[in-house]
Amino acid sequence: MQTAAPTLREAETLPQPYLLFLGDTTEAGYAKTAFGLRDWASERCVGEFACAGATVSAGLPSLTPAQARMLGARSMVIGVANPGGRIPPAWLPSLLEALHAGLDLIGGMHARLSGIEPLRNAAVVHGRCLIDVREPPSALPIASGRKRTGRRLLTVGTDCALGKKYTALSLVRAFRGRGVDAQFRASGQTGILIAGAGVPMDAVVADFAAGAAETLSPDADPAHWDVIEGQGSLSHPAYAGVSLSLLHGSQPDVIVVCHEHGRERVLGHPHYALPSIEETIELALRLGARTNPAIRCAGVSLNTGALDFEAAQRAIADTAARLGLPVADPMRGGEAFARLVDACLA
């Protein structure tokens, strides 16, 4: 039985292809791991599997673990990132079914697969592996605050689960398309599964979190860009500490603020109103200047996935006019996204 955080070298040896497990999820925002793998590693996904009562789908073929195994799947990935990262008892029959069908289990939850006795026992009986990727590196340092060489961009959000990872991945692809040396730096379990390396920031002991962010983007060539996946929100009532540690340790030269058009309440905390984009920019620049006085905001990544094309273009144009900054939906691309990329690299 295996419990490990994947390194870049080990990523190629993770048991692939994957069956994506959606649990009993009824809130699409909590299925971001499944959506991220579908959108950025689709060649590694054969289908999806869910408990009775689930209403969220990644749009992949619905397969039982046995069917997925017959189609070549080698593991089932928990595609849910629910509040607290728990594995509820209602999931256990489905997870045990996957082990019985000959699939390894890969989890990115705070709750460790290897810490659940029925799963441990079944893994031994069926000769399967339990792989936990939300395991931070050992011997992380306390942050030094030392300025590092190279260039850094951090995606910052008004909330959770609204496009920070997708924005970072899209920017890396665009930078490389222009001949710029750039690398995606993953700071959450989905990003780590996509990239094959990274640091799960929300699993790091608080005293070492800013130091972990420094480790995530070490000294580099002056022309190199590290594009760092943001986490949470500086205004989030539960997760602001992770966001601040990542901001201080990353020492970004550039931030891109990410927002979902139309979202008004904090995900999972509807009694809190979402901060405005303007508030988020001001707060990030003020706090980020502590470790990089030259920090600047290049623009805004606006998630317009719920809008049709014409409505999305109006929302992007109106937001850009209001803020006086480049605004784009990276998933739609186009001239607006090209302007955002220009501003990042300026």
Automatic annotation (TrEMBL):
InterPro entries: DgcN-like (IPR011669), DgcN-like_C (IPR035086), DgcN-like_N (IPR035402), P-loop_NTPase (IPR027417). Residues 51-136 form the D-glutamate N-acetyltransferase-like N-terminal domain. Gene3D superfamilies: NAD(P)-binding Rossmann-like Domain, P-loop containing nucleotide triphosphate hydrolases. Residues 142-335 form the D-glutamate N-acetyltransferase-like C-terminal domain. It comes from the Bacteria. Pfam families: DUF1611, DUF1611_N. PANTHER family: DUF1611 DOMAIN-CONTAINING PROTEIN, GLL3100 PROTEIN. This is DUF1611 domain-containing protein. It comes from Luteimonas marina.
